[in-house]
Amino acid sequence: MEEKEQKLKALLRGYGRVALGYSGGVDSTLLLRVALDVLGPENVLAVIADTPSMPRFEFSEALRLAEGMGATCVVVDPGELNDPFYVANPADRCYFCKKHLFELVATVAAERGFACVLDGNNADDTGDYRPGRRAAQELGVKSPLMEAGLSKAEIRALSARAGLPTATKPAMACLASRIPYGTPVTAEVLAQVERAEEALQMNGFVQCRVRHHGEVARIEVPVADLPRLLDSGVRGAVVRAVKSAGYRYVTVDLQGYRTGSLNEGLSLG
Question: pTM here?
């Protein structure tokens, strides 16, 4: 891990002035911290998207965290909901999202004299289905965490050593990832999912997903949390809250929480 950290720092020094697509998640926060330390605040620009697919609490926390690190943070609106290809929600929806985002990041960066655009992809992401990577590659976006070979576990370890609050933060994914492919992505559905997940979090389920299936909310929590979720008192509170978010039926996925569960029906070979 130490060798990988040094490689990361060497990569950053080679880039010069950098603009980072920042979300406040585990990966981009560590990358921002290291970039600030290696290059200095004047040579680092954090660019965050203000979009309905990012929970409002996460957006506010990301801004607060960047400010606390002394970073210059620019807020942009990628306007992906104006793109019919994104709204149609095909299996490569992330491609269109990332294309809009990184084109905007590159524009903002160029206007401010930052020639190199970075993202927070890590070494583990090479084995996952991530069509957004294609957009980043087409636009020349660098992925120094990935290039340095840093895994998510190593990034968490480095984050803990740096005193970052994101070291133990649950995995993040945009709210659109809760909507099955082929179901249109709308601001209303994104807000509905956000309200339902907030209800779960307020009941103590830190790691959770609410998958949107029309009138049905399919709840995913870690298997270890299933007994508590199904406890009569907690279950009733969750059902009431999720229904108040706009769902008619509330279900629990007995397989438990897992990333990318909506990818399970895709043929990726």
Answer: 0.90
